[in-house]
Amino acid sequence: MRVGLGFDAHRLVIDRKLVLGGVEIPFEMGLLGHSDADVLLHAFMDALLGAAGMGDIGVLFPDTDPQYKNANSLELLKRVYQRVNEQNLQLVNMDAVLMAERPKLRPFIPDITAKIAGTLHLQPNQISIKATTTEKLGFIGREEGIAAQVVVLLEQIKV
Asked: Of 31, 122, 131, 147, which cross-links 37 as Cys (Cβ 3.0–4.6 Å)?
């Protein structure tokens, strides 16, 4: 068994789509980043890579590389998960917390869970996502950004 932890945060800006877990969330702002700035998937990828002892997404998909400009993080997640599987590791479960003052994310969690599970060919009960606010504290509370924290458990596959 291998445990990994991932964290990501991005600033909210006008004139960007808000994408979390591969799902577009209706909101007047979106997250600023080189790719689609999907904080949930970025934290998930870092957790997977950390558990596998394979570094982080900044090494695999540097924000200085133009090929990742506006990249779809679901596609990047598939590539990361394939690399993890090539190390004979499989996901047991993922547990995540999305932190945002607004928009309220709870209504979107079923769609996000289904999108991630479908993309990686997992059972929905392997994916747990919660949403919380920071009670108006810090950059999240001031509605300046959104963050995500993810923990994963990987299991070595016997070959």
From this structure: 31
The DSSP secondary structure of 33-84, one letter per residue, reads SSS---HHHHHHHHHHHHHHT---HHHHS-TT-GGGTT--HHHHHHHHHHHH
Query: What's the CATH code of the domain at 139?
Result: 3.30.1330.50
Under a CB-based contact definition with an 8 Å cutoff, are residues 100 and 133 in contact? yes
**What is the per-residue burial (b if ≥16 Cβ within 10 Å, else e) of 143-156?**
eebbbbbbbbbbee
Q: What is the pLDDT of residues 71-121, one digit of tens each?
A: 899 999 999 999 999 999 999 999 999 999 999 999 999 999 999 999 999
The neighbouring-strand residues paired with 131 are 98
Helical (H) or strand (E) element with 27 = none
Model pTM greater than 0.85? yes
Q: Total domain count for the chain?
A: 1
**Structural domain for 119, as ranges:** 2-156
